[in-house]
Fold this protein.
Amino acid sequence: MQYCTDYTNIDVLQQHLYAFKQTKQLPTPLLILAPLAGFTDLPFRKVVKDFGVDITVSEMISSHALVYENEKTVRMALKNSNEMPFALQISGSKEDIIKKAVEKINTLSWVDIIDFNCGCPAPKVANHGNGSALLKDLDTFCKLLQIIRQYGNKKIYSVKVRLGFDKKIPSELAHAINESGVDYCVVHARTKADAYKKERIDYESLRIMKEILQIPLIANGEIDSIQSYQKVLRITQADGAMIGRAALKSPWIFWQIRNNTNVMPIALKKDLVLKHLDSMYDFYGERGVIMFRKNLHAYAKGQKDSCKYRDFVNNEKDYGKIRESIQSFFGETVLDLNAIEPTLNKKSV
């Protein structure tokens, strides 16, 4: 079963983003699935989209790999039929390569949004001048975003950033984003140097940026429940949220946020897990069963005998046997949706 989002297609989203320039608000907060390398692939995004996330984003794709048509990269650029709007996220720092990558994306009719990653803290990305390394040179940062818009033919452009590289620069960064010409920005509330340390999260800096920005700010970082979502939006006054890690074990978190509830939706958990497995198998073949192990670990967390089950999963690669084990292990664990949906739909977050 699929649940509607508040931004049903790219034209609706574009209209609201345009209206934001006059009203300084969106009709409802944007909910976006964060790109996580090795996790938020096409099969997983299919599952999450069914729980009402507004925008799904591809895993981060190297602009260089895209230009030279790396086979794996080409597959990463694909989307599901239910992913509307869909953003393709690229990284890079070379002007000529970025331009060629954008021209390549122009030919991909299913891509609605070009998103530029300027926030990835991974050494293999940042040490080569990409991702969060671009926050050390805001002139180059701004120029690259302008090039993407200049040569692109898509309706919407966005950027993902952190608060800075090794120091927080919220004001300077917000002014640079305004100058760049993007339509919305996602800000992870830490610097590159902060990595993912919980104690380093800084929502106050997002509030500073929000006061300066002329486009919607989407908050990112440590949002894992309806309570944390509401807290972050209250502090930052952000226009929405991007959620990644929490969605891996609870894809329904977007439905909970949209309906302002901690109640789990009604559906057999095993049906959701089976749907994800089948999608992985259809997309990747036998290799998808092995790749699905990490997802099964997340889904099994908190269940009785989960450690024993993970041991089984780690040593089994037969699609049929894994499918049977899911039916047995998850049994009649219920995520109830239909019984509460009519009442909750009248509430707003």
Observations:
- Residues 139 and 317 are 49 Å apart (CA to CA).
- Residues 336-349 have pLDDT under 50 and may be disordered.
- The two ends are 22 Å apart (CA to CA).
